[in-house]
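In the laboratory, one determines a bound structure by crystallizing the protein with its ligand and collecting diffraction data. In a computational setting the workflow is compressed into a single prediction: the sequence and the ligand go in, and a structural description comes out. We illustrate the idea with calcium ion.
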Amino acid sequence: MSLSIVILAAGKGSRMKSRRPKVIHSLAGRPMLQHVVDTSRKLDPDQIIVVVGHEADQVRQAMSGQPLSFVEQAEQLGTGHAVMQCNTTLRPGNDILVLYGDVPMIRLETLRRLVQQGLQENAVALLSFLAKNPTGYGRIIRDHNQQVIAIVEEKDATDEQRKITESNSGILYIKGNEYRALLSKLDSSNAQAEYYLTDVVKHAVHAGHKVSSVVCEDESELLGVNNQNQLAQIENLYRQQHATALMEAGVKLSDPARIDVRGELITGMDVEIDVNCIFEGRVELGDDVVVQSNCVLKDCVIGAGTIIQPMTVIDQSEIGRKNDIGPFARIRPETRTLEKAKIGNFVEVKKSQIGTGSKVNHLTYIGDTEMGARVNVGAGTITCNYDGAYKHKTIIEDDVFIGSDTQLVAPVRVSESTTIGAGSTITKDTPEGQLTFSRAKQVTISGWIRPSKNKQG
Ligand code: UD1
Ligand code: CA
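The predicted complex, in C-alpha cell form:
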C-alpha cells in the first residue's frame, strides 16, 4: 500500500515569542520540522506533504531543495481543516499518516508500529499514550469492550472524561479508501469552533468500522514544542539520547551532559571526547581519536590515532591518521592532511593539503596550498593567496623549511628542500635545495641618536 505523509505545520506558535514560525526553530542544528521530515522519509512514503500557513514562505525556504509538497492553509481552522486542504495534492487511494511539525522526537519504530496497525484496519488507527498529566490533550474514549469509540478534546470533555489518562498523540493513520468520506463529515460544532481531525474516529465508528490504537510507552517521543522552555527540554533529551548511544558504542565521554551531536557522529574503537564539544553534520572519528574540550567539528573525517586539542574548529575537512591538531586551530573547508601532520595554535588552514609529517605550528595562515611531506612552516608565515580579485595557489614541495614571518605571495612554488630565511617576502619560485631570502641586510648606523624631547621646551 502506498503511503502519503501529511505533516501539520501551519500554526503560529505564538508562545515561542519569535518572528520565525515555530516549526523552523532549530533542534540539534536542524529545523524541528526537518526532524519530522527525516523520520518520515525512512518510512519510504510515496509523498510527503507539509501544511503551511503562518509565515509559510519562511517555512518553505527553510525546507527548500527537498522532495516535499507544500499545501497552504490560509486560515487555521483546525487540524481536520488542515488535512482537508490536501485533498487535491494527496495521491488518490494512498493511505495517510498525519504527523505534527512541532512533535519532533517521534521515533521511526513507533511510526512503523502505527503503520503496521493501520494496514490491518478498515478506516483509522491512532497513536495514544498514558499521559502523566493529561491536561490539554484529547482523551481516548473506549466502550465497555475497550474498543475506541471517540476522541474528546479537553475543552469539550465532561469532568468524568477528563479523568481518563489515555491521551491522543495527534498522530493518526487513515485508510485511503475511507479518507474522503470521513473528512467530509467533519464540522466545527465544538467548544473551539474548529474542524477537529480527531472526529474522524467517531465518524469511522458510526460507519461501522473498528478503530484501534497503538499505545506509545515513551511519552517523551510525543513531547510537543510550544515555548522556548520546552524546546530546550527537548534539546536536552536529544543530547542525552546521543550521549547514551555513543557510550553504548564504547566512546568515553567525560560528561554525557556536555556533548552536542547535531547530526551523525560515527566512531571507531576507544574514542575519547572531553567536555563541551559540538559535532555537526556528518563527523567520523577513527579508532583512538581523542577530542579534547571545546572543539567544534562539522562534516569532517578524523583519522585513527589523531588528537584534537582544545578550542579547535574543523569544517568540511579530512584529517589524516596520527595528526596533532590545535589547541586553537581553525581548519576550514576542503583541507586535507596526510599522516602525522601537525597544526598548532592560532593556525588557519583553508582549501589546502598538508603532506605527511609536515608541521605548521604557530600563528600561520595557509590557504589554497599544496604542501608536500616533512615541511616545516615557521611561526607567523602567511600564504598571500588573494590578490583582491582572484585566488592563487602556493606549492610547497617536500622537505622545505620556511623561516618565521615569511609571506609567500601566490602564485608561487617553493621547490624541494628549499630553505627560506626568516622575514622573507617570496614572490618568485625558489630553486631546489638552496637558501632563499628577501630581507634587507641588517645595518647599524653608528653615532645615531634617538630623538628626545627638548627639556627647556
Ligand atoms: C491536538 C489534538 C489533540 C491531541 C493534541 C496532541 C485535535 C483537534 N486535537 O490538539 O487531541 O491530544 O493535538 O498534541 O487535533 N495545526 C495546523 N492547522 C490548524 C491547526 C493546527 O496546521 O488549523 C497544526 C499546529 O501547527 C500543530 C498541530 O497542528 O502543529 C496541532 O495543533 P494544536 O492546535 O496544537 O492542537 P491541540 O489543540 O494541541
Ligand atoms: Ca498542541
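The chain has two domains: 3-222, 238-436. Keep in mind that any predicted model is a hypothesis to be tested, not a measurement.
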